[in-house]
Write a structure and sequence with these properties.
Layout lengths: L1 H19 L3 H7 E7 L7 H12 L14 E5 L2 E10 L2 E12 L2 E11 L5 H4 L14 H17 L10 E7 L8 H9 L1 E12 L2 E10 L2 E12 L2 E11 L12
Parallel strand pairs: 1-5, 6-10
Antiparallel strand pairs: 2-3, 3-4, 4-5, 7-8, 8-9, 9-10
Helix pairs in contact: 1-2
């Protein structure tokens, strides 16, 4: 727990000082020299991040930026940050995944999704519980989502959904209604090929997966909140994988 909390603070410091204040000096302190970047539009390495900071300085700051709703989930060397941001007047849901090495950020993955509908359901894209608890169930919950991913998402055995998902599931995808049946309909339109990582802390599990949506390759980040052995709440941030990227690292 102590190491995880320390890594969470490193991720927060990165956002507050590097992204928020555009502090290049702090970026040099908190990122490794051979920092590996998976955002498709940013060059890899510390130099690539410094170029982004110069670009960000050219955009005007919003007059009344919304306070980010931040969810932090950590396990081992990995930290997940789930938040809402405003960039160039557009509200976005963001999921960042950091790998921490010797108290520096060594690797970064992300997915960014526009929030186009600002109705009450869309605003809920990121909000909800943020406190991790039931840490003694970390291993058990990790195994539940591992089996759910294998059997339901990849294996497409929708008849097994009852084993993993609560009837009154709270859903944070704007276009999907609450409840298990709506979740099942949503999943039927997706094709999951592989789950690459699970980051689990207590009652929260984050899945990093690839698959396809409407014939296009996608990266999917799903966040599950579990209670009493079932998924009770679900968030998701997904992004199409472009053919051309600023590096050769891929999005995974």
């Amino acid at each position: 727990m102590k190491n995880s909390n320390n890594n969470k603070q490193i991720a927060l410091q990165f956002y507050q000082n590097v992204i928020g204040k555009k502090d290049a000096h702090f970026a040099r302190k908190i990122l490794t020299e051979d920092y590996i970047q998976h955002n498709p539009q940013v060059k890899t390495g510390l130099k690539g991040m410094l170029e982004v900071l110069e670009l960000l300085k050219q955009f005007p700051e919003p007059e009344a930026p919304p306070k980010p709703h931040v969810r932090l989930i950590a396990q081992g060397e990995f930290v997940v940050m789930h938040l809402n941001v405003e960039f160039a007047g557009q509200h976005k849901a963001v999921l960042d995944l950091f790998r921490i090495e010797n108290e520096k950020i060594a690797e970064h993955w992300d997915a960014i999704q526009d929030i186009t509908d600002l109705g009450s359901k869309a605003i809920g894209t990121v909000d909800g519980p943020v406190t991790t608890k039931d840490h003694h169930l970390t291993k058990e919950n990790d195994e539940i989502i591992r089996k759910f991913s294998d059997e339901v998402l990849i294996g497409r055995h929708s008849d097994k959904l009852d084993d993993f998902v609560a009837e009154k599931l709270i859903q944070h995808i704007p276009e999907v209604n609450d409840g298990k049946e709506s979740f099942q309909q949503y999943l039927s339109g997706l094709s999951f090929e592989k789950v690459h990582r699970l980051i689990t802390e207590g009652n929260f599990v984050v899945s990093q997966a690839t698959g396809s949506l409407q014939g296009l390759p996608y990266v999917f980040y799903n966040i599950y909140r579990l209670s009493r052995g079932k998924i009770r709440e679900h968030w998701s941030v997904s992004q199409a994988i472009p053919e051309i990227m600023a590096h050769e690292n891929g999005m995974i």
